[in-house]
Amino acid sequence: MSMRARIGVGMFVMAALAMAVPCAVAQDWPQWRGPSRDGSVTGFTIPDSWPTGLNEQWSVEVGFGYASPILIGDHVYMFTRQGDDEVMMALDAGSGETLWRTSYPASFDMVAATRNHGPGPKSTPAYADGRLFTLGISGIVTAFDAETGGQLWQRPAGPVEPLYHTGQSPYVDGDQMILHVGGQDAGALTAFDVATGEERWRWDGDGPAYGSPIVVEIEGVRQVVTFTQENFVGVSADTGQLLWRRPYTTPSTTTSQTPHLYEGDVIESGRGNGITRFRVVREGNAWTTEEVWHVDEVSLHMTNGVVVDGVLFGLSHLNSGQYFGLDLNTGDVLWTSAPRQADNAAILNVGNTILSLEDDAELLVLPHSRTAFDPVRRYEVADSSTWTLPTIAGNRLFIKDVETLRLWTVE
Q1: Are strands 231-236 and 188-193 parallel, antiparallel or unpaired?
Q2: What pLDDT, on a 0 to 100 scale, did the predictor assign at position 252?
Q3: Residue pair 134/167 in contact by the 8 Å Cβ criterion
């Protein structure tokens, strides 16, 4: 081969590798709110200038529900409802082609207050070590083989469903998977063995809420931090022992928030209760909590915020949907947007940018700011309501509306 030919081949290979980089280094998205369960995206390529439009690569009807897409390598996993069945399916991330589909019967009767929400499921699966874990709308807990779709084990729903059915998402902690199952007076925060589905421990001191738990280390002890029906609690991740409890209720019966941990303190929010930063204190075997600050000017209900450089960015349900920036060190509200922005927003932190998918299928691109709400782009990305958190990697945005999954790319 001539020198010129070798140079030409080398340049072609380098160019091909450069084009492959966004997908090659794109992070997996194995659970609710991403790898760290905080809405932070590290594997997305921010364009120097956001284009006037996004490119739709494919669109596939996958079924009803609000579970986020799970992305592992070149597979996208979706948990949905089709008829009277709950369905777990794998799709090829590049083409949208269905690779496998597994279902089980899951008929149930919705209470009147939830009919506008539809029959779910609302829980995002969790992936770990080749297994997928789901929580069905009526409380059925299932593990699947991620390669084949085979059902590994299943636990039936408890005798009492939560009032508004289920909404929290599983958390895999080593060789156990943690969920709060059942309804008020008949539920338990439970750790299941990932391989067998057997109970490792359970805490039944209160019924479940709809927000998802986190597992963090506080005062040297790894613990499950989560909302319950009437409390905010910390439970030992190893034994299920209750460590601390704060009474917590909201005007909407229960909260749907995922807690934040900021500089060792917990950020607490729920509809009508503002936002609180509190500290968990341990003295020997005694645990207490101490309030650092509280603010009522903004609050969170269905929307989960993201934390960037000490600022919580969110959409308050107050004033019919109002974006805000809140200094987590001081509790000062730095700015608020005009009211009536949206009923809900699925918010992600991407590099130096906030992406907010509103429930009316509009995707907002916002710069991080301590001073103002100033969107730089708005994109229409679906044909129906978008209550589901997007999954973002490389230059790809996987967006689920009521029944359809789409792949958009940013050039």
Answers
A1: unpaired
A2: 64
A3: no
pLDDT greater than 90 at residue 292: yes
Catalogue all structural domains in the chain, each as residue range(s) with its CATH number: 3-409 (2.130.10.10)
Range list of β-strands (E), 182-319: 188-193, 199-203, 214-218, 221-227, 231-236, 242-247, 260-262, 265-269, 275-283, 286-295, 306-308, 311-316
The residue-averaged pLDDT of 160-185 equals 86
Give the integer Cα–Cα distance in Å for 312 and 320.
19
The DSSP string of 330-390 is T--EEEE--S---S-EEEEEETTEEEEEETTSEEEEEE--SS----SEEEE--SS---SPP
DSSP at 257 = P
Closest CA to 179 of 142, 152, 147, 216: 142
Q: How many CB atoms lie within 10 A of CB 247?
A: 7
How many whole angstroms separate alpha carbon 314 and alpha carbon 271?
13
pLDDT digit string, tens, across residues 120-158: 899 999 999 999 999 999 999 999 999 999 999 999 988
Residue 121 preceded by cis peptide, ω within 30: yes
Which two tokens mark 288?
């207490």
